[in-house]
Amino acid sequence: MPVPVSLRSVAIGYGSTAVVKDFDLEIAAGEFLVLLGPSGCGKSTLLNAIAGLSDLSDGEIWIGERNVTWADPKDRGIGMVFQSYALYPNMNVEKNLSFGLQVAGMAKDQIARRVKRTAAILQLEPYLQRRPAALSGGQRQRVAIGRALVRDVDIFLFDEPLSNLDAKLRTELRVEIKKLHQELGSTMIYVTHDQVEAMTLADRIAIMRDGMIQQLASPREIYHRPANLFVAGFIGSPAMNLISGALVPKAGKTFFRSELGTVELPQAAAQAAEEHAVIAGLRPEQIVLDTASGLPGFAAKVSVIEAMGPDTILWCEAESGVFSVRMPGDFAGAVGDSVTLGLDLATASYFDSATGKRL
């Protein structure tokens, strides 16, 4: 049965350096939660603390109804998959899967059933008699996942398990992990700095910075309604285009004023009781090469074209800066083209210039 995980006022530090600060997080039973953030933000440290591999400076960790703050890793009911495969090179796949159960004293027939079930789920049956050296990177990582899965644990912890794989294998293993969660319904906590992994795998994403959560929400919410400028810049490839300006109230209406001009905003976009310095954020798909749409526009020149297959990213230089624009994959323009960029400010995100928080 899946169980919830609760982190209550957790703090982790080394000497005078605080890595995680007064951290609270509730993870629902059966949820797939991703801890996402840049290197050094504390996400792996936090995962190690849940696993019992790092001690807390303060706070509590609860797994289900148990306070496991000071429990040994073996007593927490967790299975952990590391970035490195950590397989026994002298053992075949079957023995790698069964070794931990043998050490725990489990009966042979029960071990055999669990290994067979795990091998079937991860499509490892053809490789059970092979040693790790005879496996591909993706197969080795599946064995590493299998060693956690075979234990029949309450919670699975993943610490950047795909970072050592090439792009094709990462995509394949992402799909396998997603299918695994759908089949088992287990609680899974996954650490990564790769936003594509986070967006495709998670039920919810906790975006971290300097040991604190910046936003905790669904992938869709985070992409379309980032909580602050850090999230806006971190999520999305390319990141949001940012335009400095001000919200200006006049005659019951709100206008966005910037060096690009002044534009009336729909009520749903933003409202202001008094003039307020803001930064408008637009995703590349919220900028168009279409002045006929009636959107406010400005002149720019195409400086770089990135053909991505299904879509094309244009990098356009204007007097006010460089803007990224997402176009269809069959876009036929050329570097050096003069274009007019239209801004869909009605759907933009607006952030307070002083605090960086979403308005």
From TrEMBL:
Name of a matching Pfam family: ABC_tran
Gene3D superfamilies on file: 2.40.50.100, Nucleic acid-binding proteins (2.40.50.140), P-loop containing nucleotide triphosphate hydrolases (3.40.50.300)
Entry's transmembrane regions: none
Molecular-function annotations in GO: ATP binding
Keyword Transport found: yes
CDD domains: ABC_MalK_N
Family annotation (InterPro entries): AAA+_ATPase, ABC_transporter-like_ATP-bd, ABC_transporter-like_CS, ABC_transpr_MalK-like, ABC_transpr_MalK/UgpC-like, Mo/tungstate-bd_C_term_dom, NA-bd_OB-fold, OB_MalK-like
Keywords on record: ATP-binding, Nucleotide-binding, Transport
Domain ABC transporter, first and last residues per copy: 5-235
SUPFAM superfamilies: MOP-like (SSF50331), P-loop containing nucleoside triphosphate hydrolases (SSF52540)
SMART domains, alphabetized: AAA
Record bears the keyword ATP-binding: yes
Recorded family membership: Belongs to the ABC transporter superfamily.
Protein name: Sn-glycerol-3-phosphate ABC transporter ATP-binding protein UgpC
Species, as recorded: Devosia neptuniae
Lineage: Bacteria, Pseudomonadati, Pseudomonadota, Alphaproteobacteria, Hyphomicrobiales
